[in-house]
Amino acid sequence: MARHKEFNQQEALSKAMETFWRYGYEGTSIQDLVESMGINRGSLYDTFGDKRSLFLAAIAHYDETVVQNLVSRLEDPKASKQAIIDYFYNLIERTVNDQSRRGCFLINTAVELCPHDLEAQQHIATNLQRIENAFYQALDRAMQKGEISQNKDIRALARYLTCLMQGIRVFSKVNSNRDALKDIVQTGLIALD
């Protein structure tokens, strides 16, 4: 008879995600995961498979929780230019309050694994495309409302905003000074004018 799992799988997955986010894939050991998740090795392997499978599940969990929360405001049918502006100023606050300077789990993974890991690259590309599409939708509504010029290439602008967001997260690993981040955002958002 199969034994009933005595832990919450979503909580354990969230803890694994946090551990990978903090230390990276290569820097995280199975022992680190066991300790942070509060489960034994057998439960980890029985529930999530090997370290790689758990890591890919953690990326999917990041998409379902963190990315979903971030893009939902941009995907709102009423979201347009102000939603984009608000997004970046909220990003500054989240970044300044990130005392551990973890940056973005997606970009950390891209830098660590994507040059030599096609599967990780595909997962990260899918997540970044989702963010780009959310910016695109808000830009399209902004253009329809006359908030931005009709001659803007909003697909290129959505890619730029995605890159600006990720650049801020990388920059903040070195310098999380609020004024410096505001300068970057204000300069970057000139593209919306």
Automatic annotation (TrEMBL):
Record-linked SUPFAM superfamilies? Homeodomain-like, Tetracyclin repressor-like, C-terminal domain
Q: What are the UniProt keywords, alphabetically?
A: DNA-binding, Transcription, Transcription regulation
GO MF terms here are:
DNA binding
Q: Which domain of life is it from?
A: Bacteria
From the record, give the transmembrane residue ranges. none
What InterPro entries is this protein classified in?
Homeodomain-like_sf, HTH_TetR, Tet_transcr_reg_TetR-rel_C_sf, TetR_C
Pfam families hit by this protein: TetR_C_13 (PF16925), TetR_N (PF00440)
UniProt keyword DNA-binding present = yes
* Residue ranges flagged as DNA-binding region: 29-48
Gene3D superfamilies recorded for this chain? Homeodomain-like, Tetracycline Repressor, domain 2
Taking every annotated instance into account, which residue ranges of this chain make up the domain HTH tetR-type? 6-66
Q: What is this protein called?
A: Transcriptional regulator, TetR family
- This protein's species is Gloeothece verrucosa (strain PCC 7822) (Cyanothece sp. (strain PCC 7822))
